[in-house]
Amino acid sequence: MNFLSDRLGFGADYNPEQWSPEVWRDDIRLMREAGVTIVTLGVFSWATVEPEPGRHDFGWLDEVMDLLGAAGIDVSLATGTASPPSWLSRRHPETLPVNRDGVRLSPGSRQHYCPSSPVYREAAVSLAVQMAKRYGAHPALKLWHVGNEYGCHVQECYCDVSAGDFRDWLRERYGDLDALNAAWSTTFWSQRVTDWADVLPPRTAPTLRNPAQELDWRRFSSDALLACYRAERAVLQELTPDVPVTTNIMGMWEPVADYASWAADFDIVALDIYPEPKDPAAHIDAAFFHDQMRSLGGGRPYMMMETATSAISYRPPNRPKRTGLNRLWSHQAVARGADAVMYFQWRASAGGAEKFHSAVVSHGGSDNRIFREAAALGAELATLSDVAGGRVPAEVAVVHDYANWWALELDARPGELRIPERVRAHYAPLWHANVTVDVVPPEADLSAYKLVVVPNLYLCTDAAADGLRRHVEGGGHLLMSFFSGIADECDRIRLGGYPGAFRELLGLRVEEFWPLSDGERAGLSSGGSADLWADHIVPEGAEVLAAYTGGPLAGLPAVTRHAYGAGTATYLGTRPDEQAMRDLVADTLRLAGVAPVVAGLPAGVEAVRRGSRLFLLNHNDHPVHAAGADLAPLDVAVLPLRHDPAKGA
């Protein structure tokens, strides 16, 4: 059921504590003019709501809640715990986070708390209780918003409290020190521990840290942040069981937390995303994150809880969005499963660190391009109520895993691989082919997909390997890239030859890794060339699709395909150039029987089917004709599905 009452939500992050009551009333008037249906309220209000320990001032918030409710505007009410007040840091400096070098960070910014601190958690839960008791029955309340962008600034704390919490986490994971020593391969470099007191966070050390320790530390740090969210969520569920609970997570190429392990705790997934206006491929990255958020919720609609109307304050240069770009990118979110489009923030701040961040209402007021475009979008979204709650079908899955991300990018690997580039290289050809995908963890149920794409799954559990094998054996198709299946979940090499977890499935053995130097390229017999990496592949049943025509492995296989059970597994032992990668993906899609959402579209036009609607989005700077629609530059068309779009325009 759509908690937004069968309509698409439209609104912004609202911070009325920055303004006088006279401005609040003007805000309500402008919100109604712009078609706002929902706001996120009170994200950074802790110091205003609780100016002293245990003394609460709810009068201003009561008034704002009543004003919004009377205007028919729903509220996603924050617990306000994202940024602790100064009195907490002063009374309890031990709540402040400590970095890897042992330096305790100071207040004066935001997120200045240790996730493992029991003092912080107790104070945060206490405030959440007061908020729930005060507003749990308020008619405007539709959603609880816990914290804010967990881990955006402080992903880890290395203090002694965190060290103790880490040890407790490891005891639960491994049981005893023998199991921990085995998991961490501590016989190397004489790192064996015989007392739990000797187990520490991976603080600054003379040289390389134990990679398994680093990996478990990232897992623990993600879980410590999740524990903060869960502590507040538990009391909210107890006191207001009928109000859904979420927090906003970030669509960004930074491994902040293992969002896949968080998803079960969200009643609705909420995304913050800030594509770069001057990046010509920003919409492809954005499409990936929208697909990921939808997939985290099991295909259910999600919220785009934060994006920018125009300029983003923390990026130099602070360039605005061109006319039409905000509308285009907002429709992209709706097309890919968002049931709400919301901005940070409603009214641009007059002071503070983000005062030059764009908002719906600018420093000069509402008589400007940004407000007019936002109001027009609000009116347009109001006509798409039938889209709310709609699903987005996908026959292809891209495997993406945070533990693999952390492990792959640790030091002392054969080559310098970065997950953002590696995922983009596999996702972009699917986007250009107008094929919608789900983004799933390695151990997901793959039975619904015709094709599974696996970018560089270095770290692989037995369960994930078995799931991928069953997928292909049962008639599915697989496209996998190099340096996959190499290590288990503890970053221990799978012995018996590379790629350990997938040798039988892929029908090959990799004898050696040959990372290529910057600027070094190897030709491919199928056309084009490759760089970055070259596997020395020895086929063991696999068919050779392409061989190297140059470079250190000239004449040896570069791309293979293996029939396994009722399906096939295609393997890339290198990084093909963009066109060669598109050609290979297109060939694999044909083999898997995956059709585009709409065939024959012009380049740069994105087509997404959601429910009974077809979204066409023109990311070009020139007009196009697509699927019977004339699209201006950066234009959008939302059409009823009257035919099978895969059969062509």
From TrEMBL:
Residue span, Beta-galactosidase trimerisation domain: 394-593
Residues of the Glycoside hydrolase family 42 N-terminal domain: 13-383
One Pfam family, short name: Glyco_hydro_42
CDD domains: A4_beta-galactosidase_middle_domain
Source species, domain of life: Bacteria
Listed EC numbers: 3.2.1.23
Gene3D superfamilies: 3.40.50.880, Glycosidases (3.20.20.80)
Keywords: Glycosidase, Hydrolase
Matching InterPro entries: Beta_galactosidase_Trimer, Class_I_gatase-like, GH, Glyco_hydro_42, Glyco_hydro_42_N
SUPFAM superfamilies: (Trans)glycosidases, Class I glutamine amidotransferase-like
UniProt entry tagged with the keyword Hydrolase: yes
Reaction catalysis annotation: Hydrolysis of terminal non-reducing beta-D-galactose residues in beta-D-galactosides
Assigned protein family: Belongs to the glycosyl hydrolase 42 family.
Protein name: Beta-galactosidase
